[in-house]
Hints:
This protein is α/β, with parallel strands linked by helices.
Amino acid sequence: MSSLAARCPRPHQLALPFDAPLWDHVGLETALIREYGRPLRLTLTENRSVLLSFRKQGGVVYLRLHRMFLHAPSAVVRAVARGLRRTNRNADGEVRRFMNENLHRVRREPQRMPQIETRGAAYDLQSIFDRLNVRFFESKMKVPLTWGRGSGRARRGGLTFGSYDPVLRLIRIHPVLDSAIVPLMFLESVVYHEMLHHHLGGVPDRAGRTVYHSRQFREQEARYPHHQQALAWEKENLPQLLRASQKLDRERRRR
Ligand SMILES: [Zn+2]
């Protein structure tokens, strides 16, 4: 709704990592079935050598795709479905190109949980989390959070203040917010935003793509009493925060 969008002039400032997947398992399987038009079962793999394979059995296609395909745009998904109709097992050019461009997603090792650091110089994230948990989630939420290393690239005109990693199930908060110049209500609004990502997950849109900042998300986000104030503070102080984060970057590189 436009009124909801208007309340959050820069929704991507408090966003998931740039690289959030376009699909979840069910959404991708549904899209493939729609394109292929016949029964299909999708298995997602971390297999490093075979990124795409399938077999047909009893009128059902059993398709195995590397998890990188959660990032595949619709055109690539269509090309995968097209490939299933062929007798020739070679992936189509478009699919091959996508795989080559996404090889960085093929991990050598599973992602490891980083060391958790909640105590900062100005703020203790754990106590902020605990208060929000009592207030909004009946103290039921269990998810670790940590000060990040601040290595997230500053994006055009913005900073990723917080992120939620659905694979590690971990909330990271940018260390630039661990400062006395940052009001508690702003830090709380960032932590609360990421807690909502953990709480709500993604919802598929009509095309089956995963939407993270859904209408429900925006409504729940606005329940935080200082939501408007936090947005206004961000707008006013973004240049200062950007400079502070660049300074952190330089210090880190020096060390
Ligand atoms: Zn977000």
